[in-house]
């Protein structure tokens, strides 16, 4: 898998992914509340079109904001108070969230990009 092979989702795939993010408790039970709050926030702020690198960027930007950097760019959605200070809980959860809510090939690309960025 090459870094240049960014996978773009179709609109129906984005809709399905967003529905799964909205109901993440049903799809990924037993996680810390911060994970559920992050998924709910992503559900509200994800655009209708993005690729695998964009998803990694949005996740990374959001968890970085949890450290108090507040880069912004989340539209009109206020940043959830419950995520502030939750970076260490959230930083390792992207692969699991992607496997749960994304189509398989997209999730694999997200995991690859995330792990490459963590090195």
Structure description:
The protein has one domain. The protein is mostly helical and 119 residues long. It is 59% helix and 0% strand. α1 (11-22) runs antiparallel to α3 and α6 (94-101) packs antiparallel against α7. The protein has helices at residues 11-22, 24-27, 33-45, 52-65, 87-90, 94-101, 104-118. The two termini are 17 Å apart.
Spell out the key features of this protein:
119 residues, mainly alpha, 7 helices, 59% helix
Task: Describe the secondary structure blueprint for this structure.
Layout: H1 11-22, H2 24-27, H3 33-45, H4 52-65, H5 87-90, H6 94-101, H7 104-118
Helix pairs in contact: 1-3, 4-7, 6-7
- Overall 3D geometry? globular
What do the pLDDT scores average to?
87
Main beta-sheet strand count, sense and barrel state: none
Portion of residues in beta strands equals under 5%
Structural class estimated from helices and strands: mainly alpha
């Amino acid at each position: 898998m090459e870094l240049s092979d960014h996978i773009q989702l179709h609109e129906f795939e984005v809709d399905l992914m967003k529905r799964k993010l909205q109901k993440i408790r049903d799809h990924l039970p037993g996680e810390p509340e911060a994970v559920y709050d992050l998924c709910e926030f992503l559900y509200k702020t994800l655009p209708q079109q993005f690729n695998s690198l964009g998803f990694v960027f949005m996740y990374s930007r959001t968890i970085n904001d949890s450290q108090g950097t507040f880069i912004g760019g989340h539209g009109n959605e206020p940043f959830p108070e419950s995520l502030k200070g939750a970076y260490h809980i959230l930083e390792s959860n992207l692969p699991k969230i992607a496997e749960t809510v994304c189509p398989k090939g997209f999730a694999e690309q997200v995991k690859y990009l995330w792990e490459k960025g963590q090195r």
